[in-house]
Write a structure and sequence with these properties.
The complex is a heterodimer of chains A (222) and B (217).
Chain A: E1 3-11, H1 19-31, E2 35-49, E3 64-68, E4 75-80, E5 85-90, H2 93-100, E6 103-118, E7 121-130, E8 138-145, H3 151-170, E9 176-179, H4 196-221
Antiparallel strand pairs in A: 1-8, 1-9, 2-3, 2-6, 3-4, 4-5, 6-7, 7-8
Chain B: E1 2-10, H1 14-25, E2 30-41, E3 51-57, E4 64-73, H2 77-81, E5 85-94, H3 98-105, E6 107-123, E7 127-138, E8 147-149, E9 154-162, H4 168-182, H5 201-211
Antiparallel strand pairs in B: 1-5, 1-9, 2-3, 2-6, 3-4, 4-5, 6-7, 7-8, 7-9
Helix pairs in contact in B: 1-5
């Protein structure tokens, strides 16, 4: 499976993400000869423990998420970030979780947008919106390099492409930049060979980042 | 959803049963070795307590894990009439971390067992699976190499078939009709409805063993 970096938009302090930025990012992909190929959509749901007493609720993981990925809709990924756990399952696991009634999903995020082909690279630009809402919460990008499956081996070429991308984007003077944070895949028991589980872990990771960023913005405001 | 019936048979008659099953189904036996872990939610998790099973197929080159949730049985006068249990059931293949995940979510091991025996998968009016297995308990936690039968000399036979709310009556009919062929050797009924071994079993088994199942029972 080709390796993939997932990036998220970090707004400059005092600014927020908006659809103008999203539009500029998409235009940038097209300006470097990205050929628009189609739409994509992945979803992340937050699972919350149903505890009989509120005080006990903290005994259970608060970073438990379920992820459905665009490239494999019949699979579902469960991640508990704090415990460095990722489980790959069939999409029927969602029904099992529903029947158990021990955890419920109330909030979910959609990551969706357009996909572009750029030689050996595939780029996806996506908005982050809560399900059943149109309010933009963030922007993500997927950078996939088709020829290589090894995380280690791909590092240099991905880094170079990332720098190229950042440079093209910087010409538009946008109030923010894309960030790439590499989770420690080994801690999750994942090998160097890239897989959908790696993607799920990256999504859980950037979501946590985006939440932390927006919470700190809120705190500054308050 | 699934349809289920169960019965017991003495271990000495298992070979005869397998000959009969092979003859009726047209398929060969597959080896069965499944480590089943039954997990229960800790107190305070969920408004009601919940149970989930993790099954590890030890016959595969790499242990293959499945999560299974067994739900309530169909109720009402209609359900009472039929001799087959119809219940909700959901399952999913999972990667090997599933046990750690459920522990992290607040599930504890309630009990575990090892099923060893054979399975027959075939189509006969419905997608039917028959398993014939000894149920074994482990003397030490997760020690599948160190397991002893819970009921020595007796094996459990289970007939299951997936069903939906649209087709369960047909599936029930297919399962019931198939079970009739097994009647000389064992009596199958809803799980929880206890039956013993069948008095004709010895004679039926002898007949099967002597001519390899060529004679109709």
């Amino acid at each position: 499976m080709p390796i993939k970096w997932i990036l998220h938009w970090q707004p400059n302090p005092g600014t927020t993400v908006n659809s103008q930025i999203l539009s500029e990012v998409s235009q940038c992909a097209e300006s470097i000869n990205g050929v628009k190929e189609g739409r994509w959509k992945s979803t992340l749901s937050f699972y919350k423990a149903m505890a009989r007493e509120q005080t006990i609720a903290n005994d259970f993981p608060r970073d438990f998420v379920g992820i459905s990925l665009a490239e494999q809709p019949n699979k579902y990924f469960l991640v508990i970030r704090g415990q460095r756990l990722v489980v790959e399952a069939e999409s029927s696991i969602q029904m099992i979780m529903e029947k158990l009634q021990s955890y419920k999903t109330r909030v979910a995020l959609n990551f969706e947008g357009n996909q572009y082909q750029l030689g050996d690279f595939q780029l996806r630009v996506g908005k982050v919106v809560p399900m059943h809402s149109e309010s933009l919460r963030g922007i993500v990008m997927e950078m996939e390099y088709l020829p290589i499956s090894s995380w280690e081996k791909s590092h240099q070429i991905m880094g170079e492409f990332f720098d190229l991308w950042q440079e093209s984007l910087s010409k538009r003077s946008l109030p923010g930049h894309f960030v790439h944070i590499e989770p420690n895949f080994a801690e999750y028991g994942l090998a160097d060979q890239y897989s959908l589980q790696h993607t799920a872990v990256q999504y859980a990771s950037i979501t946590a980042q985006m939440i932390a960023t927006s919470q700190s913005v809120q705190a500054t405001r308050n | 959803m699934e349809c289920v019936v169960q019965g017991i048979i003495e271990t000495k008659h298992v070979e005869a049963l397998e000959i009969l099953l092979q003859g009726l189904s047209g398929v060969h036996r597959e080896s069965l070795r499944i480590h089943e872990l039954c997990l229960k939610s800790v107190p305070n998790l969920g408004l009601v307590s919940s149970e989930v099973r993790l099954l590890c197929d030890l016959e595969q080159p790499e242990p293959a894990w499945t999560v299974r949730h067994i739900g309530g049985a169909m109720r009402g006068a209609g359900a009472e009439q039929i001799s087959v249990l119809v219940r909700t059931m959901a399952e999913s293949k999972v990667s090997k971390n599933a046990l750690r995940l459920f522990y992290a979510l607040g599930y504890k091991l309630d009990h575990e067992l090892l099923r060893v025996g054979s399975a027959f998968h075939f189509q006969r009016g419905a997608q039917i699976t028959v398993t014939v297995s000894s149920i074994n308990k482990m003397l030490k936690l997760h020690a599948t190499d160190d397991a002893v039968p819970v009921t020595p000399g007796i094996q459990l036979v289970e007939v299951t078939a997936p069903a939906s709310s649209e087709n369960y009556t047909e599936v029930v009919a297919a399962v019931s009709s198939f079970c009739e062929y097994l009647a000389p050797l064992l009596h199958l009924s809803k799980p929880g409805v206890s039956t013993g071994v069948v008095p004709t079993a010895a004679a039926a088994a002898a007949s099967l063993m002597s001519d390899g199942g060529g004679t109709a029972l």
